[in-house]
Amino acid sequence: MSTVSENYVPGHAAAAPQAGAVKLTMVLSGAVFALMMVFGLLMRAAQGQWIDLDAALFYQLLTAHGAGMVGTAALSGAAIMWYFCGRHLVLSGGIFWAFLGLFLLGVVLILGAIFIGGYGGAWTFLFPLPALSGGAWEAGAAAAFMLGYTAIGVGFLLYYLELGRRIHARYGSLVRALGWNLILGREDNDPPPPAIVAAAAVTIFNSIGIILGAAVLVASLVHLLVPGFEVDALLAKNLIYFFGHVFINASIYMAVTAVYEILPEYTGKPWKSNRLFAIAWNAVLIFVMAVYWHHLLQDVVMPPWMLVVGQLVSYFSGIPLIAVTAFSTFLYVRGSKMTWDLASSLLVLSVAGWSVGSVPASIDGMISVNKVMHNTMWVPGHFHTYLLLGEVAMAFGFMAWLVRGKTISQMDGLDRAAFVTYLAGAAGFVTVFLFSGAASIPRRWAVHYEEWLAHDRIGTLFGGLVVLGTLVFVLRFAARLGRREG
Amino acid sequence: MKMTVLALLAAAEAIALRQAAEASPIQHVLVQMPLLVLAGVLISWDMRGRRVWAVPLLLTALTAFLFWMLPRSVDWALTPAGETAKYLSLPLLLGVPLRLSWPWLAPVLRGFLKANALSMLGVLGFLYTHAPLRICNSYLVSAQQDLGFAFLQLAVVLACIWAVPVLFGHPRWLPSGSAGCSKCGA
Ligand code: HEM
Ligand SMILES: [Cu+2]
Questions:
Q1: Residues A69-106: tens digit of each pLDDT
Q2: Residue A383's Cα: distance from chain center in Å?
Q3: Are A188 and A182 in contact (CB under 8 A)?
Q4: H or E element: which one contains A480?
Q5: Which in A110, A241, A326, B70 has the greatest CB count within 10 A?
Q6: How far is A285 from chain B (nearest CA, A)?
């Protein structure tokens, strides 16, 4: 064992405050992940014509799956980051409960909008679709959906305000928490640990995203209620994708704190912030906001320089951070005799999945490729990679660690089976999506041609494995939670 | 004493802008009205509100704010009755209650109000630049558009003012308020 930094407190001795709230959030997240995966499986099976789904229902499921998964990824990421920031900061529990309450209120509104009101305009609520349902849903349903988003947005805003305020109080400024002293080579006898660097960066860019997202939500609501108020469609698209891109990315950037704080327990080496690490996070902070243009590569009316920036920045944004994280993980793991239990396996897998997923993402960020790939299955292919094998694996790894107990022991048979099932299922599932994309099969189509059915059916089989693995992870977590808490 | 003088100055300035307010909605909404609120804030600067009053006072201030945010109220403020209401309510029902309740508000609530203000300025900017009709009958459509852009610019400026101290720390040359960084709102 090497030296232990001041900020590194091994084991559960540093049990975070509000662990109860975090555990509850993780149970909820696990359950919703499982349910939404079943929705995804239904869609995939319907595309493969194994089951018969009404097209309207398909789009409702697509909307629920998209909004539900993005929301749950963010929720679980937020719970993870809250937990680990609680090791370094004093955080107010009331804010977390308010955050969770607003989130659940939003979920109720969104589910009501979709399954009672019939809203099926996708999680991206792209203008003017919500108002142009062609009779499939009333304006009220779209409005309820957006109000649900607003409630969730308010909850997140409170979360980040509390976090930002405490970081500011503890470190004096957010730039210090971002590690600027490390970058500039200045002396800092209390450098921010990795979780705080991550929290500072996410707090900044996600607050900006939420404030802009709230503006476009309210503008869209006004348009729904007073159709005369036209939103400028291109402006709305820019705002929505800025918000959407930043928000879903934030979920991974929050969840990765689990890797920084948990892996050291296994490797025996503390994960400390250094200059390169700080530079990578500062690059993320800026670039995550500048790359959303890659969603608009097909919008020929966009100023070309923006699209070029979108392409170039795509390479620089995630890559340095992923490289630094993946490289450090590799070094730490290689140099130590790690015990591979469920938590450590899932966390190491998540870093690998996140890295691998960024490759097809960057490919699609190239304007020349995007011309052909834009609306194909390539897109769900790449984001399912870094979500299923990245964010969700981080969340499941964190859950496994929460109920692990003090002794670390090798995986038992069931854990191993679940892990392998999940890994094989997810890897196969995303590979099929990527193949379909390369074969120019479009995304978001409820009804597929004969020629595509083989893809869909193989995808469905792999998806089933993912659901199986997930059920074991979640049930195991719930069962152990009950046992340990008593 | 000093604050009272400043408050009177702000009020006088607001009244001096009467003509300008009629001519341009920017002068009206973004200069005269804020000056009136400022007058209210300054006149009550040295008073101490009581904690139990914080919530009712805040609600009063927000109600007054919402009312004057409506384009219809802006039109009304150019009639004699509306003008009187404006001169009285903006300082007394918005500025004073805001000043008295602010020190009691939880920091997260303050941050939330500020973030919300930014979003709402964005929405107002959108409304005024995209409205399919003249929303204020007393002003030209072009002036309405200018006002919309002014809202957006204000949002950017406020965002910078509020964000810089949090990002870079409290500037040393500013006195830090009794409640920590209460002035910059961190
Ligand atoms: C068993 C696991 C899963 C299955 C079977 C599944 C299935 C699907 C299917 C069939 C689609 C529609 C593809 C199309 O455009 O035709 C889809 C879209 C999507 N999925 Fe999944 N998925 C799974 C897991 C996840 C996870 C874990 C996340 C995020 C954390 C996620 C996020 C999304 C998003 C954001 C969309 C895009 C929705 C849209 O186009 O509006 N999925 N998924
Ligand atoms: Cu993106």
A1: 999 999 999 999 999 999 999 999 999 999 999 999 99
A2: 10
A3: yes
A4: helix A453-485
A5: A110
A6: 13
Nearest to A229 among B112, B119, B132 (CB): B132
Say yes or no: CB of residue A463 within 6 Å of ligand 1. Answer: yes
Q: For residue B107, give the nearest of B51, B50, B171, B186 by alpha carbon.
A: B186
Measured between beta carbons, the chain A residues lying within 8 angstroms of B159 are 211
Q: For tokens 């660097």, name the residue.
A: A197
Domain boundaries, chain A: 17-480
B69: contact with A, CB 8 A cutoff:
no
What is the C-alpha separation between B30 and B154, in angstroms, rounded?
A: 9
pLDDT at A307 over 70: yes
DSSP-derived secondary structure for B61-77: HHHHHHHHHSHHHHHHT
Q: What's the pLDDT score for residue A14?
A: 44
Give the CATH H-level superfamily of domain A17-480. Answer: Cytochrome c oxidase-like, subunit I domain (1.20.210.10)
Q: Measured from the CB, is residue A443 less than 6 Å from ligand 1?
A: yes
Do A352 and A268 touch, CB atoms closer than 8 A?
no
Q: Establish whether this prediction's ipTM goes over 0.90.
A: no
A133, A151, B133 from A128: Cα distances, Å? 9, 21, 20
Q: Helix axis angle, A19-47 relative to A55-85, nearest 10°?
A: 150
Q: How many angstroms separate the CA atoms of A112 and A67, rounded?
A: 13
pLDDT on residue B175:
52
Domain boundaries along the sequence of chain B: 2-184
Give the ligand 1 atom nearest the CA of A388: 27
Q: Between B114 and B172, whose confidence is greater?
A: B114
Chain A residues within 8 A of B118 when measuring between CB atoms:
211
